[in-house]
Specification:
heterodimer; A: mainly beta; Methylamine Dehydrogenase, Chain H; 4-stranded antiparallel β-sheet; about 10% helix; B: alpha/beta; 6-stranded mixed β-sheet; 5-stranded antiparallel β-sheet; about 50% helix; elongated; WD40_repeat_dom_sf (chain A); autophagy (chain A); WD40_rpt (chain A)
Chain lengths: ~450, ~950
């Protein structure tokens, strides 16, 4: 297409760019998103989206502004100003007190070394804490204990009223990059290459409340831990910059399984070492992890990998899912997977069980049928190896969303309300199901007609 | 939207293509008959011989105290316009009917001269000899040096078409009032200013005199007064008196009831001026601080700049002094404002009256379609200057105007109040009619006829009421002797009742007579016929007066012959009746053209039965049309648009002279057309509405470009489909002019997303973003070879799924496939349409059809929502698709067009008035194809 535009060339339909990235084409029957709303409000990269309730979400980014949006209408509800630097972490904090009405708060941390608690209903700043020695890089709310944690160069525990309950000693200058809640009042904090387990406990003094102390340091990762996700009460997973994925037992913090560089050498023994060398570490870094009960989905470099916890191996992968690093992935309830990337696109994948062919499949022809490029030959080989005993899966691209002109930092899936994506182009796009929106509008229309008394049903 | 000159071409088009697709006939209010002589290259809008000027113009005259009535200026200011028309004579005429109760001077019992703030008078007068009819607006301006301080002026809109003046009276009056108000406002200020200066002078004179007297007193110690001293004292006294008088005048002029201005009547002609008046309204002394008139600002601050002069004791009241010009009288700023307003008026009312009417009807109709009109119409012109009267016309008119016999009068101001005096005539009419009816064969007829008088009288009442209520005296200085009987209003009241072909004409007379109390009929020159002389004069070629003369002689009989052709034919179309018609026609028409004797084909007959319809200019929208159709079944069956065409073919061979002598109904009916049309004094029918004049020009150009586009590009259809289905079309090219031309051409196909946003961007040089596709549906994009240009193309390729790309340089188009039928009708490259504006209207009409489909689709409840609670969504979807495909007859991609329009309608309807609503971008995942020439 581009070639056609530039040169007025002869083969405009030769859209298949030479890149190995799988393309879905213009016809995307399974892609429900046929309507979009561009939400403008930020002046810089929007990095975070966080859901407040069923129809509201907050966005935050480098401009220090927090915006609250209505996910249905795209209406901007509030614009919260309070931070002077970029926002580094955001977490929703809903009070679950049964007796009082549900109160939605969000906590934001910024590079200006403050943390602000906002009330989402009124759009007001509830409280501001500015006693930090370093930037808070992550925030975690422990609903169960009704406290929240801030992780910077140390770990602080706060209660709802923003009283500092306790804090650890100075850990590192780099600070905590990720926090995840574990059972038994424990949290795992990723500090550089180390994974530190902290335990919160009631101190003997009743009034003091809480105490936090380090339980264990896990040093199995070769490089910085980038992602940390809790799968269930028994397991959590970490991923590192060099592409290690380790599955941990959440109770005794032992390594259950690990995949180190499994995306190339381990599963492809036949691959020449040159290739491995040529891969820059960035291309194997585990950017983001997500999981459902059975599988962990890892965004590794440009690819997406599905790791089955039971089988303890990768069951499906798309090594070049995007043109550039995948920044965020999410599993949808309907076997679908959404990924967004630095290349500015959002892609929708479906995890499909491969039709088991009794005979050995034709090595290339089979995949060509699915439109896989040459680069996927290796995946093909992987598949061939696995097909002996287990059901085989593959990730099928069912649609892509192109709207942002820069890296898509994150997205938020709102079920049938749609999908919100935020990007470095300062925009948030709300992707919606056009059919549904159309019928909703019809409904509104007839309601309005009835209101005005113009509706006569016979 | 559809205007008369173009309807001609349009209907022809329809005719040709009628076999291809069954188009619904034109709405009846648009049924404008074709001119029968079109085939001979005759211009149906040609000027009538009677008038000596080529087009309508505005004349400003003054009744000068020195030289009497004199023309001051004309608008347009072009000697060619008035031609041989005697402006001096006409000025005399129009100035001679000034009935303003303007009295300034010393009223008895008052010591000081009094200013009267008189209402302008508005008068219609006609001069058949000159072939001129005029709306005359008299106003009085104040001038300190003038006799009685007043200078009578008048502004006249002069046209050869009496109907135009009568029908547009309300509008003319409103517009001229604005101009007049502007003049008077300026004049009051100037007058006050003048008084100020005069007072200064007087003051100064007094001081000088006083000093002189004192000096004399001192110098004179003889103890007695010299005559000189007495003289001085007298002089002083008179100056004192004069000062008091002038102060009083100043007070009066300042106490002008500004409150009145703000009331309904006066619409400030200019926003800035409105402000102006609002400012000055409360306090007249503080002159408006308008930058446009620095000289006027703050009288007092400028006082030092004025050096008082000594006033000679004996002011010379002689004729050698030069009177102030109009410009001086009302200060330059206001004078130019007024001129602007007058030019505006001239533009507004330029063109044929049927053009004006059609325009007004269209706008009134469009206004009512508030749900859909934003899509393809230029709503901006609907918003501004609501045609007040028109709306009223539309509603009030409902009952009366079903058939053509209710004439153009229906357009004149209308408040339906029946006056008692007319009641009686209503009662007598049916009897009379019935009696007449007995002569004709079908008893049924009578009842249909009897219902008519009621209506006619309705409108009559309304008409009269209108003229009364308007508060101005309408004077028709008909130069004809309108028939002696006509002056008897009682007898004449029955005149409009007759549903005869000439009803229209007769009514012209009757209107004048019936309303005797409020309308003056001054007949100045003798004429034998009942037909107003002006008609004779104006349309000598087309009208044969004789039948009317006959009718005039035997008034009672008049109904019978006239009725039967019309009504008998209406009853049924049996061929037997045809002969009867011929007989009728023959008997009531003195001479016969040879071609009338041969048996007429049925089509040829139509004009006869139709002639009532044919003779009318387009009627305002009739709400009650449906109901009335029952009463006059024959009338609704005739598609008015077709008729003239048939006529046309029939008379193709006939020359003007033939038709003139041939007195059959057809020619008669045509005569109206030709006359009505020809009275247009403007040879080039031009935009009726000034506000959309630019728009009109744009449309013309856009239409022309679009025509060229569809002829030039074989892939015009998918391109247009893209626009109609809401997919942004990017026109890519290096040459800005070419790209812009294409964008202009295509812009007529772009549905508007809302009232205020026209989603067309003519020229963009930077890379496009997603936001742009939300805002714009048609974009002209620069192609450059620079690195920046590559970025532009990258963006295009990235967002290709939202775009159709028309490459103007390589003449390629990349867009989704289109297999529907709507666009084929919209953009047929073999179309016979030549003119841009005609094509534009063709497009508009098809788009309007689409709109109506979209409207139906959007507002059918069950198509979108389940009938019962348990109905599954699929069945609703099925129903919806069935409706689109079967009911609306949409094929393939046409469905998407209607769906998109429906979506826009929904959004528009749902949208709360206050908020703009965030624009959506809807798209489909459909493959694109590349089209090449």
């Amino acid at each position: 297409m581009l070639r056609w535009l530039i040169g007025g060339g002869r083969e405009p339909q030769g859209l298949a760019e030479k890149s190995s990235v799988q393309t879905v084409g213009e016809e995307q029957i399974q892609n429900p998103y046929t309507e979009l709303l561009v939400l403008k409000g930020h002046q810089d990269i929007v990095r975070f989206l966080v859901r407040i309730d069923d129809c509201r979400f907050a966005s935050a980014g480098d401009d220090g502004i927090v915006c609250l949006w209505n996910a249905q209408t795209g209406e901007k509800l509030f614009e919260l100003h309070g931070h002077t630097h970029k926002i580094t972490a955001i977490a929703p904090f809903s009070s679950s007190d049964a007796f009082e009405e549900k109160k939605h708060l969000i906590i934001t941390a910024s590079a200006d070394r403050t943390v602000i608690v906002w009330d989402c209903t009124s759009g007001r700043q509830v409280q501001k804490v500015s006693c930090f020695h370093s930037t808070v890089k992550c925030l975690t709310v422990l609903q169960r204990l009704d406290v929240w944690l801030s992780g910077g160069s140390d770990l602080c525990v706060w209660n709802r009223k923003l009283d500092l309950l306790c804090k650890t000693s100075h850990l590192t200058d780099a600070g905590i990059s990720a926090l995840v809640e574990l059972p038994k009042n424990c949290v795992a904090a990723a500090v550089g290459k180390e994974l530190i387990i902290f335990r919160l406990s009631d101190s003997n003094n009743e009034s003091e409340g809480w105490n936090v102390f380090e339980v264990k340091r896990l040093v199995d990762h070769q490089d910085n831990i980038l992602s940390l996700v809790s799968v269930n009460d028994l397991t959590f997973v970490t991923g590192s910059y060099v592409g290690e994925l380790i599955v941990w037992d959440a109770l005794d913090w032992t390594k259950q399984a690990s995949e180190c560089n499994f995306w190339d050498s381990s599963v492809h023994p036949d691959v020449q070492p040159e290739i491995k060398l040529s891969q820059s570490p960035n291309e194997t870094s585990v950017q983001h992890l997500t999981s459902d009960e059975k599988c962990v989905f890892a965004a590794v470099g440009k690819g997406i990998y599905v790791y089955n916890l039971q089988m303890k191996r990768v069951i499906a992968c798309q090594r070049t899912a995007h043109d550039s690093s995948v920044l965020h992935i999410e599993k949808l309830p309907n076997r679908q997977l959404i990924s967004c990337s630095e290349d500015g696109s959002v892609r929708i994948w479906e995890l499909r069980e491969k039709q088991q062919l009794p005979a050995e499949p034709v090595p290339t022809g089979f995949f060509n049928m699915w439109g896989f490029g040459r680069a996927n030959k290796q995946a093909n080989q992987t598949a061939k190896k696995m097909q002996e005993n287990t059901p085989m899966y593959f990730l099928e691209l069912v649609g892509d969303l192109i709207g942002h002109s820069s890296a898509v930092q994150m997205f938020l899936y709102f079920g049938e309300l749609g999908l919100a994506t935020c990007s470095a182009d300062h925009l948030i796009i709300l992707w919606k199901d056009g059919e549904r929106e159309s019928s909703l509008r019809s409904l509104t229309l007839f309601q309005k007609l009835a209101q005005n008394g113009h509706l006569q049903l016979k | 939207m559809i205007s008369a000159p173009d309807v001609v071409a349009f209907t022809r088009e329809e005719e040709l293509e009628d076999d291809l697709y069954r188009e619904p006939p034109l709405p009846e209010e648009y049924s404008v008959p074709l001119f029968p002589f079109a085939g001979h290259g005759a211009n149906p809008w040609a000027k009538v011989a009677g008038s000596k000027f080529t087009r309508d113009f505005i004349l400003i005259s003054e009744f000068s105290e020195q030289v009497g009535p004199q023309p001051l200026l004309t608008i347009p200011d072009d000697a060619k316009v008035s031609g041989t028309f005697d402006l001096n004579y006409f000025s005399l005429r129009i100035m001679s009917v000034d009935y303003q109760a303007s009295f300034v001077g010393h009223p008895p019992g008052s010591a000081y001269p009094k200013l009267n703030f008189v209402e302008d008078s508005k008068v219609v007068l006609g001069d058949s000899k000159e072939g001129a009819f005029a709306y005359v607006h008299h106003l009085t301006l104040y001038d300190l040096e003038a006799r009685g301080f007043v200078r009578p002026f008048c502004m006249a809109y002069i046209s050869a078409d009496e109907h135009k003046i009568m029908q547009q009276f309300q509008e003319l009056s409103a517009e001229f009032s604005k101009a007049s108000e502007c003049l008077k406002t300026g004049n009051r200020k100037a007058f006050a200013n003048e008084l100020e200066k005069k007072l200064k002078d007087l003051d100064y004179t007094r001081t000088v005199l006083h000093n002189e007297t004192e000096a004399q007193k001192k110098a004179n110690d003889k103890g007695y007064y010299t005559t000189q001293a007495i003289e001085k004292a007298n002089e002083l006294a008179s100056v004192e008196k004069s000062i008091i008088e002038h102060q009083d005048l100043l007070r009066q002029i300042r106490s002008y009831p500004y409150r009145k201005l703000k009331e309904s009547e006066f619409h400030p002609y200019e926003p800035e001026c409105a402000l102006d008046q609002a400012d000055t309204g409360c306090d007249q002394d503080s002159a408006p601080s308008d930058p446009a008139e620095p000289g006027e600002t703050h009288l007092y601050s400028h006082i030092p700049s004025y050096t008082p002069k000594l006033i000679k004791a004996k002011s010379a009241k002689c004729f050698d002094k030069k009177l102030k010009t109009l410009e001086e009288l009302c200060d330059v700023y206001f004078f130019t404002q007024t001129l602007d307003q007058l030019h505006h008026i001239e533009r507004t009312f330029r063109g044929d009256v049927c053009y004006l009417l059609t325009e007004q009807i269209s706008r009134a109709l469009l206004k009512q379609q508030s749900v859909t009109n934003f899509l393809f119409e230029d709503v901006s012109f609907l918003d501004e200057k609501p045609p007040e009267k028109q709306y009223r016309g539309c509603q009030g008119l409902g009952q009366d105007a079903m058939d053509g016999k209710c004439l153009e009068e229906s357009l004149t101001p209308k408040v339906v109040i029946s006056l008692g005096s007319y009641k009686s005539s209503v009662e007598c009419v049916p009897i009379k009619m019935e009696q007449e009816m007995e002569d004709s064969e079908e008893p049924k007829m009578s009842e249909s006829v009897t219902s008519e008088p009621q209506e006619n009288l309705d409108y009559l009442d309304a008409d009269i009421k209108g003229s009364i209520s308007s508060g101005e005296s309408i004077e028709v200085l008909g130069t004809e002797k309108s028939g002696s009987g006509l002056t008897k209003s009682e007898s004449q009241a029955s005149l409009p009742v007759m549903p005869s072909p000439q009803a229209g004409r007769s009514k012209v007379g009757s209107r004048r007579t019936v309303s005797e109390d409020s309308i003056e009929v001054l007949s100045t020159c003798p004429s034998e016929s009942l037909i107003p002389e002006d008609f004779k004069a104006s349309y000598p070629s087309a009208i044969n007066e004789e039948p009317y003369v006959d009718n005039d002689d035997e008034r009672g009989l008049r109904f019978a012959p006239r009725l039967s052709p019309g009504i008998v034919d209406e009853r049924d179309d049996v061929s037997k009746q045809e002969s009867l018609v011929q007989v009728d026609a023959a008997c009531c028409i003195g001479k016969e053209s040879p071609n009338f004797l041969e048996p007429l084909p049925e089509l040829g007959q139509k004009p006869c039965e139709e002639d009532g319809v044919v003779r009318i200019p387009p009627q305002p929208y009739r709400a009650a049309e449906q109901g009335l159709r029952g009463t006059f079944p024959a009338h609704d069956g005739v598609p008015g648009g077709l008729l003239p065409y048939e006529l046309d073919s029939r008379y193709l061979s006939g020359s003007r002279e033939v038709s003139k002598s041939s007195l059959d109904e057809c020619s008669d009916s045509m005569s109206y057309i030709s006359s009505a049309a020809s009275t247009c004094s403007d040879r080039t029918p031009s935009p009726a509405h000034p506000a959309c004049q630019a728009g009109e020009r744009h449309r013309k150009r856009a239409g022309q470009n679009a025509l060229r586009f569809i002829r030039q590009y074989p892939f015009a259809h998918p391109a247009i489909y893209s626009l109609l289905s809401g997919r942004t079309l990017v026109v890519l090219g290096e040459d800005e002019a070419m790209v812009k031309k294409l964008v202009t051409a295509l812009s007529i196909f772009v549905p508007n997303c809302g009232v205020y946003t026209k989603p067309v961007k003519h020229w963009v040089t930077s890379p496009l973003h997603l936001v742009d596709f939300q805002k714009w549906k048609l974009i002209g994009l620069q192609r450059t070879v620079s690195p920046a240009g590559v970025n532009v193309l990258h963006a295009l390729s990235r967002y290709s799924r939202y775009l159709s790309i028309l490459d103007a340089d390589s003449k390629t188009l990349r867009c989704p496939l289109y297999k529907g039928t709507v666009v084929a009708r919209l953009a047929d490259h073999r179309t016979q349409i030549k003119r841009g504006s005609t094509y534009y209207m063709h497009v508009q009409s098809i788009l309007t059809q689409l709109c109506s489909k979209a409207f139906l689709f959007t507002f059918c409840h069950h198509l979108h929502l389940p009938i019962s609670e348990r109905e599954p969504e699929e069945s609703v979807v099925n129903r919806r698709m069935n409706f689109l495909k079967l009911q609306l007859g949409l094929a393939n991609e046409d469905v998407k067009i209607v769906q998109y329009l429906a979506e826009l309608l929904k959004l528009h309807y749902i949208q709360e008035p206050g908020q703009g609503g965030s624009p959506l971008l809807r798209f489909d995942y459909v493959p694109s194809f590349l089209y090449k020439i």
